[in-house]
Amino acid sequence: MHAATQGLTGADRAFAVAIVSETLRWMVDLDALIDGATAQILPDDVKSRAVLRIALAQLLVLKSPGHAVVSTALPLVDGGPRRLVHAILSRAQQEEWQLPDRATLPLPTAERWAEQWSLPMVEAAEAAWSAPPPIDLSFVAESGADEWPDAVSLAPRHRRLPRGQAVETMPGYREGGWWVQDLAASLPARLLGAGEGRTVLDLCAAPGGKTMQLAAAGWNVVAVDSSAKRLERLRANMERTGLSADIVQGDIRSWAPENQADAVLLDAPCSATGIFRRHPDVLHRIEPRQIEEMAALQAELLSRAARWVKPGGTLIYATCSLEQAEGEDQVSTFLDHHAGWTIAPAGAEELPEAIATDEKGLIRTLPAMLADAGGLDGFFVARLRAPSD
Ligand SMILES: C[S@@+](CC[C@H](N)C(=O)[O-])C[C@H]1O[C@@H](n2cnc3c(N)ncnc32)[C@H](O)[C@@H]1O
Hints:
By secondary structure, the protein is of the alpha/beta class. It folds into three domains: about 1-95, NusB-like (N-utilizing Substance Protein B Homolog, Chain A); about 135-180, no CATH class; about 185-385, Rossmann fold. Helix content is about 40%, strand content about 15%. It is built from 15 helices and eleven strands. Strands 4, 5, 6, 7, 8, 9, 10 and 11 form an eight-stranded mixed sheet that branches. A three-stranded antiparallel sheet has the order 2-1-3. Helix 11 links the parallel strand 4 (about 200-205) and strand 5. The longest helix is centred in the C-terminal third of the chain and has 20 residues, at about 290-305. The termini are far apart. The structure holds S-adenosylmethionine. S-adenosylmethionine binds near residues 204 and 230. S-adenosylmethionine (SAM) binds near residues 226, 253 and 267.
């Protein structure tokens, strides 16, 4: 995405982002149309296929004018199969090609999710990623949210707006009363409740969505992340919202705090397959091997994080993944190896309506949840209690 938007600003940048996003979202269906129109299947990595994908995404999804699409696409294949590309784009317009109602998931993802969850889950995921999701805002204080009467509130300090607005131009952005955060991503910090001056270690904290929530809820936050660049964004976010935290750059495989904390929140690095609505590239690039590698890293980080919780304290483990290996399986392995630790299930009053814990007390958000209200990212959240001594 970075390469596609380099040097662009404003409307040009937004258009480039839309072309890339919609191409990735609809790529399986765009490829089916391309393959149906060529005598020989174009290799996956040839330029002509890439050009056809982005041109068809503009024609069929973004509804750009045909002449503009053709005249910007053809120079991209100069010295190559210009005639083929021209012929396919002309056919698409003459025959009024249509995309299906739902964007098809890449086959390996569909198979993996059907096996782990169910076929209806795959269908719900396809429906969920067929259009960009709405914008969820988290507020520093409930009073700030009153000024958004047209937005829907699905939880305290939360407002949901229709997609398509530029965040920086929305009211109050500079004043810093809110930040963008999917409702599902706000659940881990919600489970820690009010801080009342107690200390929480926010591990893997950048760019700081959960740090801001915790600081706003009265926690003394120590925010740790290994990435200097992402910590810059965290710092800017804290500054904009007027919230504070101790910010530490450290790799938590080697870094350790001086003292144990009342609570630890580990928002572990993961495959990020749960945020596929916003980042459709994820499903094209994540493979089982990466999920395995992430799961191994998460197990290491989780067991280190557990050492830093005071006796009787709380550990939140979260990932924005729809893979059980990065969620349910992590917790069950953790409990097998950490005597005395238990799951502390969230009560209904702690969760937005329509989100409940599973039979073990764990939170798993899936694409069908709140579908009629704009859906949710796929998240896994466990609240774990340390033994008392
Ligand atoms: C899911 S993101 C965190 C999102 C963040 N908690 C929020 O709410 O905005 C995961 C973060 O983990 C960090 N990370 C990955 N490996 C790490 C490690 N070994 N030690 C510390 N941070 C790490 C990454 O730099 C990344 O910022």
